[in-house]
Amino acid sequence: MPNSTGPAPFDFGLYRLSVDLVDFSYRIAKTLSGIKRHARDQWLRAAQSIPLNIVEGNGKQSLKDKNRFFEIARGSTLECASIHDVLRVCDAIDPKSDSHGKSNLKRIVSMLTRLIQRSQSVSEGSIEYEYRDAEYEYENTKPLL
Prior knowledge:
Layout: H1 13-29, H2 37-58, H3 63-89, H4 95-119, E1 121-124, E2 127-130
Antiparallel strand pairs: 1-2
Helix pairs in contact: 1-2, 1-4, 2-3, 3-4
């Protein structure tokens, strides 16, 4: 991981892994030019989006807001995986780098998925309460007016 000017916003393995992915993406992107530049630019935007949304989600108070940012980060991770496929098919990334990057992308997706699933349910002892939007409870009621 590259040196930073200050500490990470929090000690969070997922965050650190996503920043390492950005570093990896930038190192490979430096070698891409010409017709490959469009995939390179999209890849860098998607890769940067992952840690940024993880941190922003972590700073939110409500579970709904947290999950929204974590889901955006997961979507960006999947986008990076797709861009890996495009770069691999175009021989813009070697098989070893592709395998390494895909391995980290799978870990990030798994960690984000577990994080989202955990925050959708709250446990208390042996009783589990599911987190849901409260709006659905009032769908079948008549308006007050």
